[in-house]
Amino acid sequence: MNTQSPLPAPGAPLQHYVSIAPFDLQSVEAMTPEQSKVFQASQLRLMWWKFRRHRLALISGIFLAALYLGILICEFLAPYNLHTRNMDYIYSPPQRVHLFHNGQFVGPFVYGRQMTLDMDTLKRNYMDKQDDVQRIRFFCKGDSYLFWGLIEGDRHLVCPAENGQLFLAGTDRLGRDVLSRIIYGARISLTIGLVGIAFSFVLGIVIGGLAGYHGGVFDLIVQRVIEVLQSIPSIPLWLALAAIMPITWSPILIYFGITVILGLLHWTGLARAVRSKLLALREEDYVLAAQLMGASSSRIIRRHLIPGFMSHLIATATISIPGMILGETALSFLGLGLRAPTTSWGILLTEARSVSVIAFYPWLLLPILPVILVILAFNFLGDGLRDAADPYR
């Protein structure tokens, strides 16, 4: 380290002092291991690190991943077959799971039930028989089923005891297990959101991208069409579109018809988001360079503009999926969407349209619980993805 010397006299030549220590570039540019890790990380890794700090979004993502993996094996997860009827246990309330009987550990079990009929109200009353211990079986043989309608099987994750009953969420008016029907209904209610958002995703990106990149008359027409669609009340529009589908269609055709309806209703918001982004990005220098090199409009939008805000589009789509699920639930609840024998959460809720049914058998409202949890999970996941879309902020 050089020491300071007194200033030279006026007019005297300026003396230079140079350190004779060797110059070490690494000592100047040295970074801590944490800084080096961040500096060398990719964009995707930075987004993951930021998303991981959003605890609610991370938990919601794990929850939704487990649900979507579960719909692949819902036949195995459900205790009963979708159409199994227990006529001796109509409108049976949910059973409680116990671990101890008379102070001794038995394992998970339920008590057997005995039904009595109230002749004044004609209501079925069920009483637990404390001497009838029915142990719950795991990875067992139970009702037969067709796995995805193709492969025969009879293995279940959870089964009732031999000649016993297991109604953890109660039964409906035909004695069908509500929990099993909720698990089967998840396959339709969860996938219809993904299929519908894929349809609206394509419409929103194509129409919004062309409107934002070219502008002019096409942009003006698209904006007026979007305003007209958004000004129409949702329920009358659902009624009109649902009435178009013939009642002779099979459940599969009705399923795809509902997804098309939901896609037609939800592309407008995404199209406006894409348009606003492209209006800002089309003035960038790299867009002008691509135009001068002879790139077509579709290639510029597809290869240069859309990837620039794809993370924002993914977050927007994630937040839009709950609207699709709610739309299917509302249509099916009103009797305008899917119909039996197809099973969804909306169809299950049609069992609880009567006030008297809700008063006597409130467990028939349990299908609303997974709807609420899925909607909240998607909203939290969308918030986390939106924050992680810009990891440098």
TrEMBL record:
InterPro entries: MetI-like (IPR000515), MetI-like_sf (IPR035906), OppC_N (IPR025966)
Compartments where located: Cell membrane
Membrane topology, record value: Multi-pass membrane protein
Keyword Cell division in annotation: no
Pfam family, one: OppC_N
Family matches, as Gene3D superfamilies: MetI-like (1.10.3720.10)
Bilayer-crossing regions: 56-78, 188-213, 253-274, 309-338, 358-381
Keywords recorded for this protein, A-Z: Membrane, Transmembrane, Transmembrane helix, Transport
UniProt KW rRNA processing keyword: no
ABC transmembrane type-1 domain: residues covered: 186-382
Annotated family: Belongs to the binding-protein-dependent transport system permease family.
Protein name as it appears in the record: ABC transporter permease
High-level lineage: Bacteria, Pseudomonadati, Pseudomonadota, Alphaproteobacteria, Hyphomicrobiales
